[in-house]
Amino acid sequence: MTDRAIERNRPAMPGLWLPVYTLAHRELTRFFRQRTRIVGALGQPIIFWVLFGAGLQGSFRGPAEMSYQEYFFPGVAAMILMFTAIYSTISIIEDRREGFLQGVLVAPVPRISLVLGKVIGGTVLAVLQAMVFLTVGPALSWVGLAPELHTGLTWQNAAATIGFLTLVGFSLTALGYLIAWPMDSTHGFHAIMSIFLMPMWLLSGSFFPPGESGWLSWVIRLNPLTYGVAGLRRIMSSNPAAVERLPEWWVCLTVTILAATCYVSIAVWMTGRRSAHNAR
Amino acid sequence: MVQNVIPDQPADEGAAVVIRDVAHTYGSRSALAGVGFTVASGEIFGLLGPNGGGKTTLFRLMATLLPVQSGTVSLLGFDVARDAATVRSQIGVTFQSPSVDGKLTVQENLRHQAHLYGLWGGTATSRITELLDQLGLSDRARQRVDELSGGLKRRVEIAKSLLHAPQLLLLDEPSTGLDPGARHDLWSYLNRLRDERQVTILVTTHLMDEAEHCDRLGILDRGKLVAIGTPDSLRRSVGGDCLTVRSAVPELLAARITEKFGLVPRRIDQDLRIEHSAGHELLRDLVAAFPDEISAVSLSKPTLEDVFIAQTGHHFWDVAKEEQ
């Protein structure tokens, strides 16, 4: 086709979703070409689950007499979401350093498409890995690495679980995006991960049940991820006694949606600014 | 004052690039101080200047990456500050640092780029095939970009920026890091683009030999446009020949030259420079008059470097040194 023909047929702008699709697709292609990332993002949480499960088994007193590994199971799924989300948003820093990002910034792409493309790409990866864990985790009991457990995951609640995992994954990836965007090096991101993101996960009810009072219980209550983990427990649990002290389902859903909307809005604002940092 | 060597500057009407009174600061540091020029449609225009001269800032302003703080930047009739999205859809941008994804193949890079510009399906495929062919990349389509040489990577970069058939192409230091063969290929392709498709091309460069390829040049120094014109007219503006005289006592020698010949040499570091219409005669007279004071002397036709020195009073590389 000649240039003139393209001139006639060319839409003025690429629209919202084509760039989202292409940027998300690129995230997936890059991920599957880096095998170490797959091992890292799945391996560490599984090791955590097996080791903490075995170590804390005796001393744990959770709701409805459940075992620690059973309690920790949705928490590890949240951890996988967080780790994958984090690693995929680190790619923003790499994209900036390697120069790819400047090419996207000069394209006529709505800035929300850039944010959504990156975040949806990361979310798909995060949910895929969390699903692998939710399926493989219980199978570890066959080789003696975990006790027999009732994960609560059934064919009936599988769709709701995937849906909610997607929402939490989206929210975490968007949070990662807005932390990664202003950074020039991955060192800074690792520091934020240690002092902010890991504690955020630890204090979300993933690792231990929140107490009734004290400053810690307030931190947990103010942590948006608490509602993500609680929502996941509510969907997956078949035992009402195990979830009776958790926030209501509608609260979990509302807080998670609000948090995601808030993160994405800030991310779009940051991305849209023409500044010396964005021009680098 | 900008010396406009070419009186018949393209009129603003129909010009591909119109820059007026553009100033830009980073905090308290001024990067551009009132720059203005126009580039006609179908022209290859070069912004020549040392690193730190302001050309990258100007390039980023045109590429819609930096906010326009003062003045106007208009590309293909669209204001960069107001119509950034339209400008983005109409121009092609090639950066000095690669914007290709090394982990992906050449074809994948082009496919993603096409999507970012709203081209997809069959249109994208035929356009990609066409550009791969034009740039001699067809047999590399399935190769990862990381595996390619610097010259081939730059070609992929250019293919990327041309996918949506822009009428204006901005290139930042396009020859940097390329061997002479790849440079030659690049420039013959840019000339073809201009000749066959009437694409307007604006390049920034700090390389004199690259500047020679341009139809017109603007010389930027310390945020100001110090001269503008065709390479030939710029060289002619220096006037005759350039004599460079080296001496252990440059101050004294300068004073004595002024006294004897009525000329005012320009002191550049340890050298004295004299522009003169009959350089060979002056050279003979100088050597005869000051055999002890002169340690070396050279005579040359003016180069773009001489234009730069004539306009700024310092060497091209001094600015970069000061920046460091």
How would you explain this protein's 3D organization?
By secondary structure, chain A is mainly α. In chain A, 73% of the residues lie in helices and 0% in strands. Chain A has one domain (17-272). Chain A has 12 helices and no strands. In chain A, helix 4 crosses helix 7 and helix 7 (158-180) runs antiparallel to helix 10 (224-236). Mean pLDDT of chain A is 84; it is low at 1-11. Chain B folds into 2 domains: 3-235, Rossmann fold; 240-301, Alpha-Beta Plaits. In chain B, a hairpin with a 2-residue loop joins strand 5 (70-75) and strand 6 (78-79).
> Could you tell me which chain pair has the largest interface and how many residues each side has?
A-B, 40 and 41 residues
The count of helical stretches of chain B stands at 12
What does the largest sheet of chain A look like? none
- Sheet-strand content of chain A, in percent, reads under 5%
Task: Estimate what percentage of residues of chain B fall within beta strands.
Answer: 25-35%
Ends apart, CA distance between termini of chain A: 35 Å
- Strand tally of chain B is 15
Q: What does the main sheet of chain B amount to?
A: 7 strands, mixed
